[in-house]
């Protein structure tokens, strides 16, 4: 008797909201790389923003199915989840849209078929971290989402990936888009408080590993790569090695950060409040992972390496070298052509300027 080969397991169908954002793009690309059917939900009008349209086109070319709508529209989300038989919902929406997830959670509960929900976390453990205002308000909103998810008994995974692998500017809402300093370093406090730094590609890769892993159901998954555990002084020294020269170091005191936070200017004050929590209070390592409600990603996947911060800073050094090449003999920068926006039926408001970006996510 001939025995047929076992059929390969059916991949979960994944819906990602916020896939044109900084973290969402990495998650969407990792989902596609894992050969999962990947649905990308975008807000109406997103194609009018050239940078987001370029991301959207790239995801579409890789096989993503593009859907248009709002996560705040409960009935619409119920329809999307049912019609496309979605198994996993991942939200990577920005800080200004955290509470829009309330309607999404209601839709997930109503459908009753979602196997895993990953709300928009992608930063610190919002229950343990305790930043000053206005950053605290964002964490209160994320805690509200958590409470509703847990009250409804929706299977969840919280991704606590800590800081993005870049220079942590306290006054820059997208630190990963900027090169490390070239004139002087701003060192927070005495520069000895450490943080964990994770490459965007690794955030995406490990996030997608968790969605079908039974060990991560109803857990907070923490990213603590020991080889990427740096303080500000060590970051500065690493960058100095890359550029081949030393730079002056200027101290930004705890008082300075608290004063900026107290100005309540969005997003600068929010980022300053998070910077204070990380590099003054040590919010990323001042608690233990107990294994009951928390797991560490390196323990789950010990054979999967993280990109090192050294490698990420090599990338920045190459960008610096390339940017110098882009300046012509007349001193003018070479034009950078942008991919044409996706066509839409009517003009919309550009959504390029996102409200706030934490060091790894919102």
From TrEMBL:
Where the record annotates domain NmrA-like, the positions are: 11-311
**Record's SUPFAM superfamilies?**
NAD(P)-binding Rossmann-fold domains
Q: Which Gene3D superfamilies match?
A: NAD(P)-binding Rossmann-like Domain, UDP-galactose 4-epimerase, domain 1
PANTHER family the record matches: LEUCANTHOCYANIDIN REDUCTASE, PINORESINOL REDUCTASE-RELATED
CDD domains in the record: PCBER_SDR_a (cd05259)
Among InterPro entries, the record links this protein to: NAD(P)-bd_dom_sf, NmrA-like, NmrA-type/Isoflavone_red_sf, PCBER-like
> Which protein is depicted?
Leucoanthocyanidin reductase 2
Record's Pfam families?
NmrA (PF05368)
Question: For this protein, what is any one GO molecular function term?
Answer: oxidoreductase activity
Q: Which GO terms describe its biological process?
A: lignan biosynthetic process
Q: Which gene encodes it?
A: LAR2
Keywords, sorted A to Z = NADP, Oxidoreductase
Q: Which family does it belong to?
A: Belongs to the NmrA-type oxidoreductase family. Isoflavone reductase subfamily.
């Amino acid at each position: 008797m001939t025995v047929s080969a076992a059929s390969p397991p059916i991949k979960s169908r994944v819906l990602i909201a916020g896939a044109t954002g900084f973290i969402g793009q990495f998650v969407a690309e990792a989902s596609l790389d894992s050969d999962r059917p990947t649905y990308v939900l975008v807000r109406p009008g997103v194609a009018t923003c050239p940078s987001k349209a370029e991301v959207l086109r790239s995801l579409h070319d890789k096989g993503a199915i593009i859907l248009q709508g709002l996560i705040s529209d409960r009935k619409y989300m119920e329809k999307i989840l049912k019609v496309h038989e979605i198994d996993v919902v991942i939200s990577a929406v920005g800080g200004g849209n955290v509470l829009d997830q309330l309607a999404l959670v209601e839709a997930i509960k109503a459908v009753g078929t979602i196997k895993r929900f990953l709300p928009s976390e992608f930063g610190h453990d919002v229950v343990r971290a305790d930043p000053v205002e206005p950053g605290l308000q964002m964490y209160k909103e994320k805690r509200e989402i958590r409470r509703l998810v847990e009250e409804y008994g929706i299977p969840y995974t919280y991704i606590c990936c800590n800081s993005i692998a870049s220079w942590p500017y306290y006054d820059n809402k997208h630190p990963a888009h900027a090169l490390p300093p070239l004139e002087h370093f701003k060192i927070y406090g005495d520069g000895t408080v450490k943080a964990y730094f994770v490459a965007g590609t690794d955030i995406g890769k490990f996030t997608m590993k968790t969605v079908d892993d039974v060990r991560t159901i109803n857990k907070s998954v923490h990213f603590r790569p020991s080889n990427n555990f740096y303080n500000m002084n060590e970051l500065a020294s690493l960058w100095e090695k890359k550029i081949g020269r030393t730079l002056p170091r200027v101290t930004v005191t705890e008082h300075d950060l608290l004063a900026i936070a107290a100005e309540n200017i969005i997003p600068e004050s929010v980022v300053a409040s998070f910077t204070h929590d990380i590099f003054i209070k040590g919010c990323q390592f001042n608690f233990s992972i107990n294994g009951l409600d928390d797991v560490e990603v390196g323990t789950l996947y010990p054979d999967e390496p993280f990109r090192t911060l050294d490698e990420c800073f090599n990338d920045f050094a190459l960008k610096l070298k390339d940017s110098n090449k882009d300046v012509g003999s007349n001193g003018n920068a070479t034009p950078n052509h942008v991919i044409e926006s996706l066509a839409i039926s009517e003009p919309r408001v550009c959504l390029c300027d996102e409200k706030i970006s934490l060091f790894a996510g919102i």
